[in-house]
Design goal:
Blueprint lengths: L1 E8 L6 E9 L5 E7 L4 E8 L1
Antiparallel strand pairs: 1-2, 2-3, 3-4
Length: 49
């Protein structure tokens, strides 16, 4: 995994605190993930070519 790259803000609407990562799978796929800190959950943001 590479990261984290932190994004935060949104005080005017909803708190946003995310840590973005790039992760390489055992099969060589590259995933773009983030951890949503307020929700304490992981999300798949995308798969890179």
């Amino acid at each position: 995994m590479y990261g984290p790259y932190r994004v935060s803000g949104g005080w005017w609407k909803r708190l946003v605190e995310r840590d973005y990562y790039y992760a390489e799978t055992d099969h060589g796929d590259l995933l773009w993930l983030f951890y949503d800190r307020p929700r304490k959950r992981w999300f798949l943001h995308g798969v890179l070519d």
